[in-house]
Amino acid sequence: MLGLILNQKEVQEIEYLLKREMEELLLDLSDPRIDGIIKKAMEEKYQIVFGIYKRFVPPKERMKYMLHRHRRDMK
Questions:
Q1: Which of 28, 52, 53, 74 gives 20 to 30 Å between its CA and that of 21?
Q2: Are the CB atoms for 50 and 26 separated by under 8 Å?
Q3: Superkingdom, according to UniProt (predicted)?
């Protein structure tokens, strides 16, 4: 376990960076040209980044970035 003290400006910057990374991963996950194995690794990375993001924002903000399973993945 690590601790970190940040000022408000640094918190905002980290939130921004995490959002950008999640948006990029979501975009790549929707690309049909990317192989399933690669997508699995990307989903794992997304879950890690989302876990960090959840520590910075209130629950309402988290809902925008929750990873929704595609219908074909649910079969």
A1: 74
A2: no
A3: Bacteria
- State which residues form the domain around 40: 8-74
Is 50 domain-assigned? yes
pLDDT tens digits, the chain, 75 residues: what are they?
Answer: 889 999 999 999 999 999 999 999 999 999 999 999 999 999 999 999 999 999 999 999 888 888 765 434 433
Q: How many domains does the chain have?
A: 1
CA distance 12 to 67: 22
In a domain, 1, yes or no: no
Tell me the residue ranges of DSSP E strands in the chain.
Answer: none
